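User: I'm preparing a small set of examples for a lab meeting where we compare how different chains pack in three dimensions. I only have the primary sequence for this one, and I'd like the structure in token form so I can line it up with the others. Please keep the answer compact; I'll paste it straight into my notes.
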Amino acid sequence: MEVRVLGGLDGLVRDSSAVGRAACLAHRRGEESSALLDRKMRCLDRQRDAAAMAIAVLQRTTGVNLAQAVDVVVGLSPPAWCADSTRVLEDVEPPATIALDRQVRELRARISQAAALDRAGRSEEAAVVARAAIDDADRTAYPPVVAEAELELGRILISQNQGVAAAEILRKACNAALASGAQPRLAVEAGARLIYVEGAHAPDLDRLQRDLLYLEPMSRALAHDRFARPLLFNNVAEVYRIAGRPDEARHYLELARDALGGAPSDIELTIIDRNLAMLTPDPTSRMELTRSAWIETRDALGDHHLRSLQAKAQYALFQTDVGKAHELLADLCVAYHRFHAPLLDAQLECELVRAYVASESGALDDAERAYAWIVDATALSSSAEHAVHRELATGELALLHHQLERAVPAFRAVIDAPRPQRALVGAAASAPGRAGARTRGDGTARDARRLPAPRHRGDRVCGDRADLPSHHLPAPPRPGAGTARVASTISGTRCERSSLMGYANGMGEDTLGKRSSRDNRRMPQPSGPHPEPSFCAQTEPGDCNGMICGGGNSPFTNIFPINGMSADGAGACNRDGIRLEPHSLQGPKCTEADSDLMLDDTRTKLVGKKHGRITCAGDQLDGASFTVRAGRQSLPLTISQVRQFDDDSPYHQHHEGYQIKNGNAQLCDLNAAREALYTLGFKKVPDPEPKPLRPYGYHLGDNDDLVIAMPGPAFDVNTAEPIEHPDPAHFFNLACVGDALAKASFYKLTGDARDTMAALRMITANYCGKRMTVRGMHIEWESYPPPLKSKVLEAEWDRDGRALCIEKPRLMDLRVNSPSEIFRPQELEPGLQPHGCRPVPDEAWQMRRGVLGPSSQGRVQRLRPMLSGQPVAGPVQVVH
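Assistant: Understood. Below is the structure token output for the 880-residue chain.
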């Protein structure tokens, strides 16, 4: 590293001298004017000042930041830029007076100092220097240096993940550059970075297109540009990727690559090839792109720089030859051990992925060595995260030796960890099912499945779900666009912070020679006796019709795509591997940025909190954004509206509702919810495309675009079963107003988890594991066992949520074309047919038995359920 740093500085001095000499000779020969010579010399002076500041930063660099010393040198502008006559003539006019010129040169040196500090990993110091430079630049009344200082602070804030603050300062930089009329290159760069930070929080494609209308032509006019325009296209692509538009993202990445015109002029832009690889379907092209990015990064920073190793990891994991991938990962882990010994987390992750890939390639001895290293390296650590690594490796070692009795307790320790660590829980949950799938020796029966690899980002990350279908939302009413699995990318911002394992879970078809097929089974859930039910849909006299209440049903438990969010700001992963990002709440009306979204003390409203203090609540949340993540895929969501409303139940309870949007699409819309899951990496599964049936005269409710906040537990959206967790209050729900979970709350049908499950199955007509209804069907229910007089029953659900018997489903009363014409049940789509249900007979649409009410009332005749001749007690029964 020392050789590379000193060699880089020597090269800058040598090149600077050569450019200066060439400029003088060209002027002496009369080939270039005195004004052009002055511009070139000013450019070289500025670069020498920047180099001097970089050297000063290096002289104060300690061992903590020593690994980033090469970044300080590599980030300096090349003297060749000063040899470009067109480029230097584009620069702004020098200050009008000698005194102002001296002030501006000093300010630019301080801006270079801030940049060098940031590249050295001392971003807090860098931000202080940059802010002071902005204050002093404002006093000069020389706009160009103000824009330069603001752009540098924007870069620094991006590296600190302060998106909201960065957006504000970048907008100022872009406006200042445009106002000067002579800084188009700076304006394009500031605009490109602004596009990223705004789009990362809440992708707005309309705003993006408006920005492109002026930035793209401006970037096209830049002479000999190989930075600003490629950066612009890369960041536009990132916004499209976040918005779930992979085709547009790939298009702009290809434009970015074309705009480079060859090898990147700045090490930051090597990210273009890495991003493009993520969206390229052809495995050979993916491998070539990642190899190119790795070679360019390695040549600039050295073989053992962290960014070089990260690029090499991506190249390894996009190999089509599993043996080659294993070889590259083995070399990678050796480099981490030798050159980055303090980074234990990175070494653990490298060895873990190396072990997985070794197992894939049949090198079980090497897998054993890797797991053994993990156990030894964490033996003395008190870290809870390291303990999870240790237990997982212990379990894997036991499986390799066919010791299932040792493996199961180890995997149980991973699953039962107080705060389960990252994707390792998924690996532990599926591991016992793999016992016996591997053999040692001839390798004739080894595990052909991939496990999700962990990542290190300074915090817990949920397991990647890229190869799981978005099973927990029903089929869309229109056809999908085929498979759209988009792996996460780095934004192309100033500091690329990806970890080694950032790409391990982003592998799709043909990666390592086979398709990933993770075990889709759920984690084992704690068992135990259920409490006795505490509710029977009790109502107060006069609230409904005696003891009977009624309202619209819903075919969906809850359309909102994130099924359970961590209630305490801890960022716990829900069962689908999705988590609410801690400290991600940002809002223009919040008193502090980087807050946690959680429930208030009443557990019915959302608030933002930071260090225990409420930072925004109620209308202050209007316009705020927060982020959810699945593995490396993130999804910024916006609270676009906060509305107060009374529900339609007989109780007319008051609620605070929130319209949550992904871009411009509100997430209580089925298609938008599914697209959100696709953005998070869930695989699109071909679905039938029936046109959704609607009862005659039905329309969505005024507040059906809102969600309400509800305490946990979360419920499986297919089975309505409560999702077990050691602490049921660990998660809260955002429930769409028009769906069953919210309706159960409105009508006071929620009790303990099992009671709520029965109510959800009743509302969704889930008789036998399938939801057999459509929106807009009116139902009524009553607590049991009061006698039924004029009413007749559809079904009765017992305390375990089972429909004990059914004669005619409620869809027998579906009227679509007119209020009097009943839709022929035989024409219902297959998903709404009762095949496979019991005790519904094969001739399911024919009445079989029961005491029926009069059909002349225009109501569907229902069976009153009986068991052994006696009514069966249960919480609710549907009547019509």
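A couple of notes for your slides: The chain has a mean pLDDT of 75. The chain is about 40% helix and 10% strand.

User: Perfect, thanks.
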